[in-house]
Write a structure and sequence with these properties.
Number of helices: 0
CATH topology: Neuraminidase
Strand order of the largest sheet: 1-22-21-20-19
CATH architecture: 6 Propeller
Structural class: mainly beta
Oligomer: single chain
Order of helices and strands: EEEEEEEEEEEEEEEEEEEEEEEEE
Helix content: under 10%
C-alpha cells in the first residue's frame, strides 16, 4: 500500500478532506470486532469479538494468523496492566487476568439485566473506565480504581463508546453514541465527571463509535453504518476520512513500532446484507502518530 504524506497532501482534498487508503489484513474473524489495543510489551495487537467473549491476538510482522482465547460469554474491552496481564470488561463488571488471559479476580459493577458493558479505556491515573449500553439514558460510565473499587463517573448514558485521553490537555474524549457527538470528560477525584460537548457529528453520515487519538490531538472516529473512519481535528472540524468496504466500522487504535499504523475493527452484526469484509481487521497508514496506551495500575 502506498503511503500518503500527511503534511504534503493536506492541501489535496476529496470533498473537503484528505482521503486515506486502507487495506484488509485478515479474513472475516469476528461476529462483532471491537476494542483494538496495541501492546507495546510484545509489539502486538489485541481486540475482542464482543458477542463471542473472545480476545484475538495478532503479531503483524510475523505473517501468522491471529490466535483467539475465549474468556467468557462477553468481552467488551481490554487494557494491559502495569505489572503484567490484562483488565477486561465483561457483561456486568471486570475481570483481572494474567498474561495468558487466565482469570485472577472478578469484580461486579452492576446488577441490571437491561445493561451490558460496551467500550472502555484507561485514564492517566491508572484507572479503567468502561460504560454500558442499554435503554435510553439508563446507563452509566464506570471507573475501576487500581484498588478494585468501582464507582460511577457519568450517568444518563445510552450507548457508551469511545474513550481516549487528549494528549493536549488533562481531559478525555468520550462518545455516547446516542448524542452523535464527541464530549470532553474531566475526571474528578471522587463523584461525577465534568462533561462538555467538543464536536457535533449529527450532520455526518453514520453513528460515532470507537475512537483513537493522535499525537496532534486529532480524534479518529469509527462511524458505524457509514463504512468510514473520520478525523476530527483539535479545532473540532473534520479533515480526513478513511473509507472501508463494509458499513459497520466499530473501533480503531494506533499501533506498530512507531504508532503510525491505524488498526480498524468491523462487525457482522445487524447488517442489511452480508459482505466478505464484515468482521475483518483493517489497517491504514495516515502518516500521523498515535499516543501510547495507558495501562491499568491494578
Amino acid at each position: 500500500m502506498q503511503l500518503l504524506d500527511w503534511r504534503g497532501l493536506r492541501h489535496q482534498r476529496w470533498t473537503g478532506q484528505l482521503l486515506i487508503p486502507v487495506a484488509q489484513i485478515t479474513p472475516t474473524l469476528c461476529s462483532h470486532g471491537e476494542g483494538p489495543v496495541w501492546d507495546h510489551r510484545d509489539g502486538s495487537l489485541r481486540w475482542v469479538d464482543m458477542v463471542e467473549g473472545t480476545v484475538l491476538h495478532l503479531h503483524p510482522e510475523t505473517g501468522k494468523s491471529p490466535s483467539a482465547v475465549r474468556i467468557g460469554s462477553w468481552a467488551a474491552a481490554l487494557r494491559p496492566r502495569v505489572n503484567g496481564g490484562w483488565v477486561i470488561a465483561t457483561r456486568d463488571g471486570f475481570l483481572l487476568a494474567d498474561a495468558d488471559l487466565r482469570p485472577e479476580r472478578e469484580i461486579r459493577a452492576f446488577d441490571d439485566e437491561r445493561l451490558r458493558m460496551n467500550d472502555g479505556s484507561c485514564a492517566t491515573d491508572g484507572s479503567f473506565l468502561c460504560g454500558t449500553e442499554g435503554p435510553a439514558d439508563s446507563g452509566h460510565l464506570y471507573r475501576l480504581d487500581p484498588s478494585g473499587t468501582v464507582s460511577v463517573v457519568a450517568e444518563g448514558i445510552s450507548i457508551s463508546n469511545g474513550l481516549a485521553g487528549d494528549p493536549l490537555s488533562d481531559s478525555m474524549f468520550y462518545v455516547d453514541t446516542a448524542t452523535r457527538r464527541i464530549d470532553r470528560l474531566r475526571l474528578a477525584p471522587a463523584g461525577l465527571a465534568d462533561r462538555e460537548p467538543f464536536a457535533d457529528l449529527s450532520k455526518i453520515a453514520g453513528l460515532p463509535d470507537g475512537i483513537a487519538v493522535d499525537a496532534e490531538g486529532g480524534v479518529w472516529v469509527a462511524m458505524w453504518g457509514a463504512g468510514a473512519i473520520i478525523r476530527i481535528g483539535p479545532d473540532a472540524k473534520q479533515d480526513a476520512r478513511i473509507e472501508l468496504p463494509t458499513p459497520h466500522v466499530s473501533a480503531c487504535a494506533f499501533g506498530g513500532p512507531q504508532l503510525d499504523d491505524l488498526y480498524i475493527t468491523t462487525s457482522q452484526q445487524d447488517l442489511p446484507r452480508r459482505d466478505a469484509s464484515a468482521g475483518a481487521l483493517f489497517r491504514a497508514q495516515p502518516q500521523v502518530r498515535g499516543v501510547a496506551t495507558h495501562a491499568f495500575a491494578g
